[in-house]
Amino acid sequence: MRHASSRYRGATMPDPVGQRFTSPRTTRINTIALIGDFFFFSVGFAFYDPMVVVPAFVNDFSGSNLLVGVLSALRVLFITVPQIWAASILEARPRMKPLLMGSSIIGRLPILVLAAGVFLWAGIGGYTWLVMLILSISVIFFFTSEGLNSVSWTALVGKVVPEKFRGRFFGLGQFLSSFGSLAAGYLVNRILAQRAMPLSTRWSVIFALGFVSLMLSVGSMIFIREPPTEAATEEGPNVRKSLGKMWHYLREDRWLRRMIVVQLVLWTAMAAFAFFVVRARQLLPNAEALVGTFLILQSAGSGAAALIGGLLVDHVGSWAAIRAAAFAQILAPIAAVLAGLGVAPLPLYLLVFFLMGFVNGAAWWSFSAYLLDMAPEDRRPIYLATSGVLSSITVLSPVIVGALMEVVWPEAVFAGSAVLAVVGMAFAWTLRQGIRPRPSTTEG
Description:
single chain; 444 residues; mainly alpha; Growth Hormone, Chain: A
């Protein structure tokens, strides 16, 4: 991979601007700023976790499995579809940081509104619908923002973090973040245990803490120094052209197609994850006090994924990190099935959330690292968007799982998730690293 400044170097004269942005000092500043963003985002996300916190909150105030599935579907839809728009914008602009910061601020402000709404109305029976509506709007805004950021942030990392350090960067960021998430899980336990405080107030505090930490991650972004790149600024964003490029790259690059198939199968299997906390609260005594414990174990799993996955990416290949995540994804629903059969339900559900954290901690950046390995720098936004947009095919999976959970034995649903994960693992076994598409003169 070329340095981001290589385009600006003349044939015989050095470019001091390019050297300024690629100096060791700037690289250190960018790496520290990105890890700070990584850390504060992970802590804030733990207070708003869509797999544990949001389903537990819905379970407390609504009790609807179908609503849990709908919120998960909204998350999938709004984190995937906007990515092609993000890619189109980034192709037409010299820097990615403005989109990253702008979308982060707009996407996270509704969480503050949610905290206020829960405080004011969640304890009043007739206003439950209003609280769930505010929750749904906050999910839409937050995950639309993260859909845009999944392209801009990942492409920015590929631009300012040296390739030889990228696996360790992802691993170190995830590892440090796991400690913050552990603290967040502990706080969630302590807050929910304050029975002298109304339940609505406890949940309001949890969401407010999430908002504060998420905004601190925006503060870390301020220190990132990004070099400009050539962009088609005279044309402006063109989603139709970007869609044409997406289709062209899909036809041209079989390794991109193969990776997306793996992603789609594993993402579909992952739809059951949001219901683990719902089922655990049905099976385990005093489960309300375990929500924070589940978050702690999920964070510990993410930390383990950081250590293992980071080493795999740098020393074996990003494809190996994908395989490790897929293997953990097989084990998690199997453990949930055994717990539902009465085989040591508490220890097994503790293992479930550890494995779930491993999968969530490793899956997104192992696939991102694979895309960064495959794609030349000028194609990265479209490659990342292609992966994200096509993942929207799985949007109805959580709704289907939620509907099935209402009428079918939950452990049968979890068993189906395990079978799908096995299929995903089989496809993941065919992935290879370092296969990049040859430059093309016609790009749709």
